[in-house]
Every structure is written in structure tokens, then in C-alpha cells.
Specification:
Blueprint (H helix, E strand, L loop, with lengths): L1 E11 L2 E12 L2 E6 L6 H9 L6 E8 L2 E2 L9 E4 L11 H9 L10 H7 L15 H13 L5 E5 L7 H13 L5 E5 L3 H4 L4 E4 L3
Helix pairs in contact: 2-3, 4-5
């Protein structure tokens, strides 16, 4: 799997957020997207995820030398971001079972096993709306990391996490990024220290 970004640009009204961006992302590589506030980090990630459209240029997903149709791209992607909402009327178990109906989990994990891995077993049947912000972030990380997709997109992944949550994040990075493209949007080196390539926007 490869992601190919060709002459990509995004603007809001008359203001270009980024422009003339060319890049290729490959499996088994970890990438960081950095840049000042407003440089387009999250916007670029949303364009790669397919939830926002470029103003010019193209983003292709290529598998075995075949370009995937745009309607199939979402199947290849899992994403964790602060602006994505959880279904707070559900419990963690209900949420993961619902998510599983759209995307399979890695290693055929069950919802109960995932909840245990992220340290929330005691709260597995509590509605998510009663979770702390850090507990909700663990749920967001888990639905991204444990989805069986070749592309993993993370936007400020340690938002609201305490030290134990940050340690969980680094374990997930170490154990669940094999054979995937990992792209992390952040200005915090702690969040992207494992990345070997950096794209700096707004320079």
C-alpha cells in the first residue's frame, strides 16, 4: 500500500492553507506532520482520510500497482483525532461491537479484549458519557489502532492522556504498527518520536 500526494493544495475562501505538496507514504514507515497552528496539519490529515477534499491536486491510494477507487479508500483508513466524536450513549463494549460492524479488528480481537488492553475493564459497561476525557481518548486510540487497516492516522494522539495513558500510547505504537502506514500530526516530539520522516508545513 502507498499513499501518493500529487500537487496537493487546500484553501478556505481565498486563503491557501497549503499548496504544491508532493509526497509518497509507504507501508512500514512512520511519518510526522508538523507545523505552526493554522499550517494545515489536521486539514491535510482529513484530506488523506477522505473526510475533506483538496482544492487542487490529488491523493491516490495504490495497492499492488492498482489505484483504489475513491469509494474504497475509507476501508483502508483508521483515524484518531480530538475533533472526532464518540457515541456517548453507548458503553465501551457496545461502541466497539458497533465499530466492528464497519471494520474488522486486528487479530480477531473481541470488544472485551480491547477494553482490557486499554485498561478500562472496570468501566466496560458504563456509558461513555460518564468517562473522563482521558478515558475517552483511550477509546479513540483503541478504535484506530485495533482496526484492521493498512493506514493509521493520528492527530494529537496524546490529547487529555495522563502519564499512564501516554505509556499506553507508546505500547500501541510499538506493538500495532507493523505492515501499516503511520502518519502522526503533532508539534509535540513525544507524540512522534518514533517517526523517521517529518513533513513540516507552513515553511
Amino acid at each position: 500500500m502507498q499513499i501518493k500526494v500529487n500537487n496537493a493544495g487546500k484553501r478556505f475562501n481565498r486563503d491557501w492553507i497549503f499548496r504544491n505538496l508532493h509526497y509518497s507514504f509507504s507501508v512500514n514507515h512512520k511519518y510526522a506532520i508538523t507545523g505552526h497552528n493554522g499550517s494545515g496539519k489536521s486539514t491535510l490529515l482529513q484530506c488523506i482520510a477522505g473526510s475533506s477534499y483538496l482544492s487542487e491536486g490529488d491523493i491516490f491510494f495504490e495497492s499492488d500497482s492498482t489505484i483504489l477507487p475513491s469509494e474504497k479508500q475509507f476501508e483502508q483508513v483508521s483515524i484518531c483525532a480530538p475533533y472526532l466524536e464518540l457515541i456517548e450513549e453507548m458503553s465501551a463494549i457496545e461502541f466497539f461491537n458497533y465499530h466492528h460492524s464497519f471494520k474488522p479488528f486486528t487479530d480477531n480481537l473481541s470488544a472485551n479484549e480491547i477494553v482490557e488492553k486499554i485498561g478500562l475493564s472496570k468501566h466496560a459497561n458504563k456509558q461513555i458519557r460518564y468517562y473522563s476525557s482521558g478515558m475517552k481518548q483511550r477509546i479513540k486510540l483503541a478504535q484506530a489502532f485495533f482496526s484492521n487497516t493498512p493506514i493509521l492516522l493520528l492527530d494529537e494522539p496524546c490529547t487529555n492522556l495522563d502519564q499512564a495513558g501516554v505509556e499506553l500510547y507508546h505500547r500501541l505504537l510499538e506493538d500495532h504498527c507493523k505492515d501499516r502506514i503511520l502518519i502522526v500530526c503533532s508539534n509535540d516530539p513525544m507524540e512522534y518520536s518514533s517517526c523517521s520522516e517529518t513533513i513540516q508545513l507552513g515553511v
